[in-house]
Write a structure and sequence with these properties.
The protein is mostly helical. The protein has nine helices and no strands.
Length: about 190
């Protein structure tokens, strides 16, 4: 069993599990989305006194908070006790580009230390990027009416037109983010 957990799973296994979860959510009348947990937490903390967005019965969303907690606990257990610490299979061209940007351990580990170590919390440039990036992701998720997991997984499976529009824009702008924003952000991290 441990050997199964430590190896990458085939795409069809993940797809089947997501389909089963979505079927169960549809059957129970619930919809999946991670960014909605922020709204629930704000409502729990009294945000409804200041903004109408947070005026709802947050107790109906406790199940979604458990999903978020499960993601956090599952990620911790997987990364610390189950993870296969081999490198990610990326092309040599990508490795060369990342090394040229200053990421010396590109292709040698799953997460390059220069980008994913705890030093990000002590470096002013990294902190600014984390705060601004977090704000933009949160604002974008709220403005779009949900995050990519909510729109692409739950919204599209429920045949919601707003989710189709949101996903079209997400996938339309992804090449720009990948080609311009990511290298620019990496250069800021390194310098």
């Amino acid at each position: 069993m441990i050997a199964f957990l430590t190896q990458p799973w085939p795409w069809y296994f993940g797809g089947a599990v997501i389909s089963i979860v979505l079927f169960l959510l549809l059957w129970t009348g619930k919809s999946f989305g991670m960014s909605s947990n922020l709204r629930t937490v704000c409502s729990m903390m009294g945000g409804g006194k200041k903004a109408t967005l947070f005026q709802f019965d947050w107790k109906t969303q406790q199940w979604n908070l458990m999903v978020a907690l499960g993601v956090i606990v599952g990620g911790f257990l997987a990364s610390n006790y189950i993870a296969n610490n081999s490198s990610v299979a990326i092309s040599q061209k990508t490795i060369d580009q990342l090394v040229a940007m200053g990421i010396g351990d590109a292709g040698k580990s799953f997460a390059p230390q220069i980008l994913f170590s705890h030093t990000a919390f002590t470096d002013l440039n990294s902190l600014i990027i984390l705060v601004v990036g977090g704000f933009l992701v949160g604002f974008g998720a709220r403005y779009a009416g949900g995050c990519t997991s909510g729109h692409a997984i739950s919204g599209l499976s429920n045949l919601q037109l707003p989710s189709l529009i949101a996903c079209s824009w997400i996938f339309h702008w992804r090449p720009f983010g990948q080609s311009f924003c990511t290298p620019f952000t990496i250069l800021i991290f390194i310098v």
